[in-house]
Amino acid sequence: MRAYRALLRKDLLLELRGRELVPAMVVFVVGALVLVRLGLGGERLAGGTRAATGLLWVVVVFTSMLALVRSFAQEREHGIWDGLLSAPADRSAIWAARASATFLFLGVTQAVALPLFWLFFLQDGRSPSLAVLAAALALADLGVAMLGALLAGLVSNVRAREVLLPVLFLPFALPLVSVAVRMSVDSIPPQNGGLGALQGLGFLALYDTIFALLGWALFEYVVED
Asked: 55 CB contacts (<8 Å, ≥6 apart)?
């Protein structure tokens, strides 16, 4: 836990001082939501809130990929990746700290995205349950962070890692995103079955648990030369 806290503090301080990743993610999500709003029409949404809710998850996925591509970038660029791996600490602490930092960065970004989504798309007519949407976003962020930290460690020494990481990430993230989309869309009245939402949240929690165990157990081996 001491190594985990030190590594998490390091990741947060680097972002706080550099202000590179989170501002870029916020600008991306704001621009993407504005483009989606313009693309779905002026006063009347083409496809309604169902289409808007589905496209929100497209924005979430691509914002997440922006964060994941930059995972361990500071360590590689400043030559401290080898030092981290050589430190007398459990390497799973590196994974846990990176996943926690990514989860926090995604949470900050979506704290901006959700009010904008409500402002642009949910002013008129039926809308998805914001409670279900917020819970799905939180669990999806957690799964994306843990999966992404594991895959980022796997491709950290590959020359084409910026291309390879999204190729590896999308197939693993597809079940997570598909369930989150279905939950969000099904929460739009009159299709607002509470049991379906609970089942979807249970699946997302199970997905997160699986990748938490995999990341903790496998990270030491995926970063081996």
From this structure: 36, 40
User: What CA dihedral angle connects 51, 53, 54 and 57, to 10 degrees?
Assistant: 150
Domain count, the chain: 1
Contact 60, 110 (CB under 8 A): yes
The predicted structure's pLDDT at residue 86: 72
Calculate helix-pair angle for 92-121, 21-39, nearest 10 degrees: 30
The model's pTM: 0.86
* Rounded Cα gap, residues 130 and 182, in angstroms: 14
Q: pLDDT, tens digit, for every residue of 104-163? A: 999 999 898 888 888 887 766 677 778 888 888 899 999 999 998 888 888 877 777 778
Helices (H), 20-160: 21-39, 48-69, 73-77, 81-86, 92-121, 130-154
Range of the domain at 181: 2-222
Task: Kindly tell me if the per-residue pLDDT of 16 is higher than 90.
Answer: no
- Asked if 107 contacts 141 with a C-beta cutoff of 8 angstroms, the reply is yes
- To the nearest 10°, report the CA torsion of 25, 217, 135, 180: 80
- The closest of 214, 11, 223 to 103, measured between CA atoms, is 11
